[in-house]
Amino acid sequence: MNTEILKAALLGTDRHMPEITKGAPEVYAKIHALPTSKEDRFLKMAFVSLLYEEAGAKPLVIDCHLPECPPEPQTVVTGQLAGWVQSALTDQNDVLLSFLIFRMLQRNEVIQPQLVPTMLDKALEKKYDKQKLLSICGMTGQWLCNLNPRWKVLRDGTAEEENAWETGSMENRKAFLSALRKTDPNAATALLENTLPQENANNRQALLQLLHDRLSLADEPFLQKLVTDKSQKVRETAIGMLRQIQGSAMNRHHLDCLLSMLQVREERHLLITKKKKVVIAEDVTPDESIFKTGIEKVSTEKGVQDHVFIAGQLLSAIDPALLSNQLNISDQELIILFLEHPAAKALLPFLTSAAVQFKCKSWALALLHRGDARDIGLLDALAPSERLPFYLQFLNGNAANLFAYLLDDTYALLPERLAEQLLDHLSKFPYHVTQVTYQRLALQLPVGIMPVLKKYADDPRQDYQLRYFKNQASEMMRMVELRKNIA
Amino acid sequence: MSIFGFRIREIIQLMQYTREQILLLAPDDASAKAGRQLATKTKWVAAHYNASALWGECQGSGKNPYQTAIDLTNIAFKCNCPSRKFPCKHGLGLFLLYAEDRSAFTAREELPAYVAEWLSKRQVRETARETKEEKPADESARSKRAESREKKVSGGIEELRAWLGDVMRAGIAHVPQQAYQFHINITARMVDAQASGLANRLRQINQINFYEEGWQKQLLKRLSAIYMISEGYRNRDNLPASTAQDIATLIGWTIPKEEVLQTEAVADHWIVLSVTMSEESNVTTERIWLYGLGTSRFALLLNFYAGNQPYQTMLVPGIQIDADIVYYPASVPMRALIREQRPVAGRAAQATIPNSFSEIYNNISSVLSQNPFTEQIPFMIEDVKAIFTNGRWFVTDLEGLSVPLSNPEDECWNMLAFSGGRLFSAFGVCDQGQFDLHFISAARQGIFLKS
């Protein structure tokens, strides 16, 4: 009957009136017999028909069985931690969420099953490590990934990822090449070598720069070819890399040139003692070819003599250990001599660069002890326990850099003294770092810092900067407490 | 049939004012977030509780701390901060702190002056509301008004019938091309004719997805139902009283709350099974489904808020209340009001819940036979599983009988994740043959899908 009714409804009663089918309930005949307009009869029949359908509906029989989710072997988080995970997801608080994920992974715990779909959606976003998120989703996550095609990619990877190099966006391609460089450096070089000629200059340079990671002598032949690239940017990048490869023809050439300019002399000092000093020969003119390998001939720094400038540039790409060995002097002694050189100030950036690049501990220590170091990378040359006395010298220059350096993925607690000094600095310059950094810092503050934070939070002064820091201190207290509660 | 009550009761007791429930009281996400940030003892200069209230002092940006109090008997908030939001972040923060870290509070029998004063004022207001007497009505004016409205409604309904006749004569095939305009004039006419119920039904045509197959049936169902309501109105004198009352309500006659509150109440231990909000034309409709553990009856509390009007009820899914509830008169009474709410006294109760969709369908048939215009029919069922095939979601009972789900896809995935593909119990609403689940429970835990 419904089909007839729907046909009439669509066409209009002027064109079609439903026929009462054989065996239809008596009510239709009764309605049909009413002495009213056909629209009245039609609407009544339609209502009855649809009501019959709804009131007489029967459940369906569907042949479909979903597999059950296997039991969860790991502990499912409950209580406060579960609440925080939910809040972090709701508020899109990435700082807190990352910390909670870290903690759950540490404790071998998984989130409540009902949060898994939201977490899997998060894992589809690029900014999170999908493997970590999948781990905290436990069995439910694995099971749902099998069922939902949207999440299947989290488990299997995507066809897009497989073809990222050929068809992906520039960002995807860069990510692909970086990942390949980490796992198989030679394969990354080979891949780039095959496809580089088809790229434009900007892409060539951007992709080439990714080879800085795990740069080795094996890359020399490829880079050597790029020295004649038609793009100046690419040429410069390739030359820069060749300079850095210890043992490359260019690097050896630079070392030879530097050694011809440098001399360690022993001179009598105060008549009775002898003192070494490093001399940069002014009269040694380097081979002209060196100026075609990224070395500037004329000093671009005011007050710096050309020969010092050239030596500095050469120094920056030579391993201090190798250099000191060639000069028959220890690297500690060598850096002292450089720092005592009359042009030490001009040499500092080059010495720093070499110390950072080759992680030379003695040079890094000597440069850090001066107290005016600018490159925080110097700290990498030291063991973590040795870094503490030097952090503060980076605070005034670029606090954000220091925080980026201190706040690591292991959420290691900062020493209380350092934490106090950082807070003291921030209380004076509260806008040096962002709110996210404050939150992140709080997660690495020791519990013992609470009285200090409380002092700042209770500060009665109403200056706008202080008020801002007061709020941050208060929020940091909450985060410190939160971390304590889920230790 | 099997017993479901003990499970629900245990779940609900676990959920009594949990963190999630408190956050549901927040007027917006920003307040919820700010409330969460204040749920730490370091933010509170003082925090105390006794059997009837919580109160505390929160150090804000001002010189003096804000004084915040919460009435625990019948949840309400009070704070002297300047926020216009209700409840404010301090109220939410204090309540969250109480739910999460009771050690942050000290028990104190004696109430501070500001809390005692507020609680006594609330008590006075409650009493005044209960004893409020109706003003003596001017009977002649009232009957004149009623007569005038009858006249307007009758006129409007005749026009509506003529319009429906025209629509049917021409057919509905062309409607999708002008889906949102074709009923605008007649809807406005119904508003003028003071038939707001019919106007609402006409407006609901906008909810039909005209791009999806099946719109024809949905539209015809709505139009024919409106026609039958008008038919019922014409024949109201020959209808049983309850059906005539249903028709009057459907057309737009309302029964004053005071009158409903005078009717016989149903005292029971009620569980809040779901709270949903929907907004249309700047009016928010709050639907609260309750289930009486003793009487096994459903009740629907409907509240309407215009613009940014603060919510009056502080009921959140999972809360239990001991209350006297009065139903609006109808052939299938469902809409209700709370006459009196008492502090929760936990007690055991068992409810008999079906585990077969055949039984649910029988109940739907029974409800429709009493009131064929019923749109939302609540149900509870046990031992069902969620399944999906060809992009459509279903729940299946132990006999393998399934019903289609109208829940959005994300809710369905949450449901599946929570249940792990195993059996669960559910509360839902059947609307036009589509089943919308609001609450599911399994393994002594539950989730509210609409929260």
Explain this structure.
The complex is a heterodimer of chains A (487) and B (451). Chain A contains 28 helices and five strands. In chain A, strand 4 (262-269) and strand 5 (273-280) form a beta hairpin. Chain A is elongated. With 487 residues, chain A is mostly helical. In chain A, 58% of the residues lie in helices and 5% in strands. In chain A, the strands form two sheets. A two-stranded parallel ribbon of chain A has the order 2-3. Chain B folds into four domains: 16-134, no CATH class; 139-251, no CATH class; 262-342; 357-448, OB fold (Dihydrolipoamide Acetyltransferase, E2P). Helix content of chain B is 37%, strand content 27%. Chain B is built from 13 helices and 18 strands. Chain B has helices at residues 5-15, 19-24, 29-38, 89-100, 113-131, 139-170, 184-192, 196-203, 215-234, 241-251, 257-261, 357-370, 409-419; strands spanning 2-3, 44-49, 53-58, 66-71, 76-79, 106-107, 266-280, 283-292, 298-306, 320-327, 335-342, 352-353, 376-389, 392-396, 401-404, 424-431, 434-442, 445-448. In chain B, the strands form four sheets. A six-stranded antiparallel beta sheet of chain B has the order 15-14-13-16-17-18, with helices on both faces. Chain B has a five-stranded mixed beta sheet with strand order 5-4-3-2-6, sandwiched between helices. In chain B, strand 16 and strand 17 (434-442) form a beta hairpin. In chain B, helix 6 crosses helix 9 and helix 7 packs antiparallel against helix 8. Chains A and B meet through helix 1, helix 3, strand 1, helix 4 and helix 8 of A and helix 3, helix 6, helix 9, helix 12 and strand 13 of B.
